[in-house]
Amino acid sequence: MPADTAKKPSRIQLKNRGIILDAALDVFSTHGFRGATLDQIAEAAGLSKPNILYYFGGKDDIHRTLLNALLDVWLAPLVEMTDTDDPLDAIMDYVHRKLEMSWEMPRESRLFAGEVIRGAPRMATDLETGLKPLFDEKCALIQRWVDDGRIAQVSPAHLIMSIWAVTQHYADFEAQVGVLVGSGSQDDARAHVDAMFRSLLTP
Q1: CATH tag, 8-57
Q2: What are phi and psi of 120, to 5 degrees?
Q3: Which residues 6+ apart lie within 8 Å of 118 measured at CB?
């Protein structure tokens, strides 16, 4: 029986990778990919630059690792939207979860938005092979609900993109939201977004 030559990372190595990725998420979400440097990541992580390069091949490697880990998390609420006796509740559950993710994961939202704004140079394949089939599947599901008269007449594709635009605004423009309405306005935001989409979708 051949020996297992793949050496598993130690607890310390796993911990350091996590520290580096968390620090890099801060740096990338603040400065963008082009503005971020390994020196900034090392400083935020409290590790030396050679130590960073022991675990990752460079800035691009760290960025790709973060994006790959993020995509599955980002798509999970859409995956969970399935056929149901109450399509309106299913869509509103998705809206609420996306809103919560914007409040809980603003750094991740800005990382993803920054990548897409730059033309998705590191995620184009993932968007094509991962997001597009899922998006088409959920559009078809929503269209069946529309055709059956279970929700109002809407464009499924533009409905989903509108949900993204509205909910992710609270993360991507967090600083502006804080200036305009303050940081304690989540209940008001939730009520407004809920009323807006329920009004749009109710037959």
Answers
A1: 1.10.10.60
A2: 55, 50
A3: 32, 33
User: What gap in Å lies between CA 182 and CA 189, rounded to an integer?
Assistant: 11
- How much is the pLDDT for 91? 98
| CATH class name, domain 64-201 | mainly alpha
Q: By CB neighbour count within 10 A (0-12 exposed, 13-18 middle, 19+ buried), where does 19 fall?
A: middle
Please say whether the beta carbons of 107 and 29 come within 8 A: yes
Where do the domains of the chain lie? 8-57, 64-201
Beta strands in the chain (DSSP E): none
pLDDT of residue 1: 43
The three state secondary structure string of 78-108 is: HHCCCCCCCHHHHHHHHHHHHHHHHHHCHHH
Angle at 71 between CA 66 and CA 77, to 5 degrees: 135
Mark the ranges of the chain whose per-residue pLDDT is less than 50.
1-5
Which letter does DSSP use for residue 150 in this model? S
Q: What is the CA radius of gyration of the chain?
A: 20
Instruction: Note the pLDDT tens digit of each residue in 160-190.
Output: 999 999 999 999 999 999 899 987 789 999 9
